[in-house]
User: What shape does this take?
Amino acid sequence: MEEIYAFILATLLIYNNSLVVLGPTAWGTGLGPRRSYAVAVAGQLLGVATSTMRPIHMGTAEFLYISFLYVAISAAKISLPISVAGYAISSLSPGAAAIWLTSPATSAATYALCRTRSIAKLAAPSLLLVMYMFGYNNVALFNLNPALTAAAVLIGTYLGLGYSRWVVDIAALRPRTAASINLTASLGALLGTLANVPISFTLVAYSSMLVSAYTSNVRIIRARKFVKAYAGILIALLAASIFPYLKSLPLPHL
Assistant: This one.
């Protein structure tokens, strides 16, 4: 069952990323939906195949706990960073928590990138890069069965990319902005990977979008989306902290 658990969580993880990160930036690359989908799938699969991130192993209790959190906070329109939650529950450390809480600082790179005109030429390549880093840093954590992981990539990316325009309230991005956000998210993932810690692509991307909006004087994203993404990190950390206690409680007798 562990492989099925990993498949379900990977699909949800990829769906969320495609919905809130891939979708908005893909439209800014000029590739179109079909080519963006192909690039995103190829990038993620390549990232998973070459990743050195250690997969997370979880039992039924961990799976049900993460699933409950996902459903519960989704009702409040807060996206649970599944990779962060899974990693924190399995091996929470002060260093990992520090990386997650300070990860928005990488958006400082967005300011410089947005002011570089030639960066627009990297819009399409940056999409492949950020999807590669997402596969390497996030999806690989749930790669217990390569065939199921590939299926999760295909399904999650298709659904997330397909619904992003109708679900996500984010302004259309210009090529320069899309490239800047993708490169910033890739940088955040690289820093996390060097520490062997998964990052929240949603949080880094949203913080990057806020900086892009400030640079261009165009509202790209509402600030409350960033606040909710940061709240998702805090909820994941709190949930991971109390999980050992909850797991030790005796089950009620029916």
